[in-house]
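thought: fold this chain, then report.
action: predict
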Amino acid sequence: MANKYDELSNKIINLIGGQENISFFTHCITRLRFNLKDRSLTDITAIGKLKGVIGVQWQGDQLQIIIGQEVDDAYRQICLVNHLKEETEIVENLDPDLKKTKKKLNIKQSLLVIVDCMAPIFPLLIGASLLKCLCILLSTAGWVQESNITYQFFYQAASAGMYYFPIFLGATSAKRFGANQGLGMLMGAMLVFPEIQSLLNSGQPLAIFGVPVTTSYVYYASSIIPAILIVWVMSKVEKFLNKYLPAAFKSMLTPFLTLCVMIPLGFCVLGPVAAIVGAWFSTLINGIYNTFGLFAVAALSAAFPWIVSTGMHSAVLPPYYMWALSTMGYDPITKVAAFLANINVGCSGLACAIKFKDPDKKAVAISAALPAILAGTSEPVIFGVDLKYMKPMYGASVGGLIGGLIAGAMKVKGYAGQNSILGLVTFGLGGPANLFWMVIAVVVGAIVSFVVTLILIKKGDLDD
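observation:
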């Protein structure tokens, strides 16, 4: 039986310079992500014309191919046809290539690494968040008692997905950096182990081998940056030991010595540094929100579609989102802005559907816009319609600005849940007024995005 992604899976490897040009291949919720050694070998124009491809873009040396919500099917088909192992490095020895690209290391590449580490576990984050949200709603409405055993199983299972996030991240980070996944998971597990958390929260002075353990600002549950940083350094230590230890003792001494090095290094240096940087970042965002309030939400909501188009939203915003949920119980800025932006880009796409004369283009615009509104997946409409014709992006940004002003002015609080119209009910966790004002912000932003896009688009603007 023919597969929708047969053409893509059969041609993509040749169009990116062959399998030997791949250093890492994974995917996120909507995009295939190829880390390539030599981008000049890629025929990006031909890739964009393949069936099932919505858009193609570069982020550093990473090629991002936008597929949409069926990206997992495309990824598995490519791996199956080309005999690639799913979500792992294609070539183990990349040292020569790392030396060549060392000079190019920058903030953007670092953010892309974070995205690669988090991409495989986004479904976990989404599923656990929605499940926990549903439990809280049922309990708040009085339909289920918190003492109910079934409720407790579902609630605690969802909580485990969030609390033990560093463990899952340890596994994906180890895979990304070419390290042992078991050791990577242990790096994450030690950060959230209950007895160690009790030590860190005891208030008493702590030291390992006489080196002080920083406990201020340190809260590793649900964290992102500490686990990734620690596993990255661990991968360097492990590779160093494997290179110099006698072959007969590697299997025994490498994991043992890696742990001996990483436990003090992780708790005395790397973990605290990453946690403090994360806390400063979160404090900065909170400070901006507290100082500028409605303008901060409005600015981020207007800019969010453009941030998504770079692929950076998956790396920059989750650290604050996770910190806010775990410390305050809600997110007053990034969650609200992301929610508004998804609805707005979808509405601007629907405006294009009205303007299109070609029935096929109308169908494409509608099918790309609806996932943003109903499922919170905005990449198809951003790359397939809005960014392609540009003016719809302006319409979505104006809608985000107006909707964000309303939400910011009324101090709307966002909670764990899907960034789509179906997840609007989660704002009720902040009370009826919180839900009411978010509904107003969404409706006004959607109308503005739709109308402004209609006004901006002139005859000929939607011609290819």
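thought: worth noting. Residues 25 and 34 are 5 Å apart (CA to CA).
final: tokens above.
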